[in-house]
Amino acid sequence: MAKLMVQGGKRLCGELTVHGAKNSALPLLAASLLGDTPSIIHNCPELSDVDSSIHILEWLGCRVKREGSTIVVDSSSIDRCDIPDNLMREMRSSVVFLGAIAAKCGKARISFPGGCELGPRPIDLHLTALRQLGLTIDEGHGELDCYAKNGLTGTEITLSFPSVGATENIILAGATAKGTTRILNAAREPEISDLADFLNGCGARIYGAGEGTIRIEGVSRLSGTEHTVIPDRICAATYMAAAAVTQGNICLRGIIPAHLGPVLSLFSEAGCDLSLNGRDLRITAPPRLHSLKTVRTMPYPGFPTDAQAPVMSMAALADGTSVFVENIFESRYKHVGELMRLGAHIKVEGKVAVVEGVPRLSGAPVEATDLRGGAALVVAGLAAEGVTEITGLHHLDRGYEHMEDTLRAVGAVLERV
Ligand SMILES: CC(=O)N[C@H]1[C@@H](OP(=O)(O)OP(=O)(O)OC[C@H]2O[C@@H](n3ccc(=O)[nH]c3=O)[C@H](O)[C@@H]2O)O[C@H](CO)[C@@H](O)[C@@H]1O
Ligand SMILES: C=C(OP(=O)(O)O)C(=O)O
């Protein structure tokens, strides 16, 4: 079993480039199905979830070529409209292929998606919305058999929660539906805007992405396009946390500061000095981090749930008590028990975690049980005295490209054995 051995206590200094966003690259790869000419997608990170998306595209009959971080998808040879259960289970984003396949083929057969286990992750909002667009969905034996006899037709859809995945599925299905689709209470995450930008490059007419109401005027055909994936704001937050806990001083290159609003405020509150220069961000950590008042995870533009765990490792070492309220997922504190093995003092009650900062953590064997929880353990391990031995690395490989190399380049001492 692979392990990450992290020798803590090294100050991080230097610069690193933030790779493309997983949560953008995955829906863009699904969207590439819709064009009738090839799409070229730059800045696709090397992640196991990206590999899973490529496997799905190839299964469907697409020709996919990868050169470094550029992926070219030619969907003109698509000859299937189903995704087998083993590919569906590999990641959450397998579910956004549903909207794309249904739009392209008028039918689709899938099962339920995988992804990080953060409590129940139903897809009811996706299915209700797609039904409103005219997709008939028969559920049984763990499968969803979907067909749209008369094609998809635009309509007004109100989401009871601004679900990221459901908003993406509606955009994908609505782009070539007959007539206009309006999404009320749409997710506003930057990854939604990136998807709309990609599809508009293909000839779609999507207006208002990034706002609470999105209007999609269906078009009869889409071409391919050339597009660059936005930088990963959650990786940026994770590497900032790594600098913060090691009294580090690093420059993150290629970020989009506007995507990091509440994250930047939080690092300032912790006493870090932040200096922005265009798309570069320098973070200089204080000798001891300050505690954080209350970190409430919220849909964008609020504080992202995906950054909650790495930031909790900072709070674990801060001077004073910090409070976290996890509002998005029911069970997103699985890293707490592992952080406590490293000496953190944390109490969890329902959606609230109270973190009493300690002056130091000490290395121990720990297990990553989900992607960002694993990232939190790496962050904590970089600060802990001695060696932190992390297992469950497949979770990290879903979301961080060459994490060890990236951290080693800024002075961390860690290796995968
Ligand atoms: C691949 C990807 O982009 N993953 C991100 C996406 O996940 P994902 O798209 O799964 O997240 P959603 O925004 O859909 O989920 C948010 C909340 O809504 C609930 N819900 C969602 C859909 C549904 O049909 N019914 C329902 O009840 C979920 O259980 C959860 O409690 O957004 C999350 C919230 O920012 C991030 O943590 C994930 O990193
Ligand atoms: C929860 C995450 O991913 P997914 O939705 O793919 O499980 C994440 O990126 O933190």
Automatic annotation (TrEMBL):
GO molecular function annotation: UDP-N-acetylglucosamine 1-carboxyvinyltransferase activity
UniProt-annotated catalytic positions: 116 (proton donor)
Pathways involved: Cell wall biogenesis; peptidoglycan biosynthesis
Main location: cytoplasm
Domain Enolpyruvate transferase: 6-407
Record-linked CDD domains: UdpNAET
EC number, as in UniProt: 2.5.1.7
Residue(s) carrying 2-(S-cysteinyl)pyruvic acid O-phosphothioketal: 116
Binding site for UDP-N-acetyl-alpha-D-glucosamine: 92, 121-125, 306, 328
Binding site for phosphoenolpyruvate: 22-23
Subcellular localization(s) per the UniProt record: Cytoplasm
Record InterPro entries: Enolpyruvate_Tfrase_dom (IPR001986), Enolpyruvate_Tfrase_sf (IPR036968), MurA_subfamily (IPR050068), RNA3'P_cycl/enolpyr_Trfase_a/b (IPR013792), UDP_GlcNAc_COvinyl_MurA (IPR005750)
NCBIfam families: murA, PRK09369.1
Role: Cell wall formation. Adds enolpyruvyl to UDP-N-acetylglucosamine.
Protein name: UDP-N-acetylglucosamine 1-carboxyvinyltransferase
